[in-house]
Design a protein that fits this description.
- Keywords: Membrane, Transmembrane, Transmembrane helix.
- 75% of the residues lie in helices and 0% in strands.
- α3 packs antiparallel against α4 and α4 packs antiparallel against α6.
- The protein folds into two domains: 32 residues, no CATH class; 88 residues, no CATH class.
- The mean pLDDT is 76.
- It is mainly alpha-helical and 122 residues long.
């Protein structure tokens, strides 16, 4: 899906896809088709792989730090935040809500970054 979307957005432009003032460019036309079910599926897959990967890293912290709850509590809370924000993103893609990029994205990125930094530095 990603390769074909990138091809249609950036490589394929023909005369009917030429950029004109005030009209959407090929990348906007390819990536803002929120009615495409692939966006919902890719959002769910991205969230689930992120939760699995971060869960594995939290388990490693649990083992390395001698099963100390204080070390794994913040990343577990961040992990729940990622799961909830990812579910909201998938729901908004399903509802074709354009506000997904302004409302839900920062929450997901914030929880992802917090988990990544906490697990990486410990």
């Amino acid at each position: 899906m990603g390769i074909s979307l990138t091809f249609n957005a950036f490589i394929l432009p023909h005369r009917e896809y030429c950029v004109q003032a005030g009209k959407p460019n090929p990348a906007e036309m390819a990536y803002f088709k929120l009615s495409d079910p692939n966006f919902v599926l890719s959002s769910i897959m991205y969230t689930s792989t992120t939760v699995l990967r971060d869960g594995f890293m939290i388990y490693r912290l649990w083992i390395v730090w001698g099963q100390k709850k204080i070390i794994v509590t913040p990343p577990i809370l961040f992990l729940w935040g990622i799961a909830i924000a990812g579910a909201v993103v998938a729901y908004r893609f399903d509802r074709y809500d354009i506000a997904i990029f302004t409302n839900s994205g920062p929450w997901f990125i914030g929880f992802y970054l917090a988990t990544f930094l906490w697990v990486s530095f410990l």
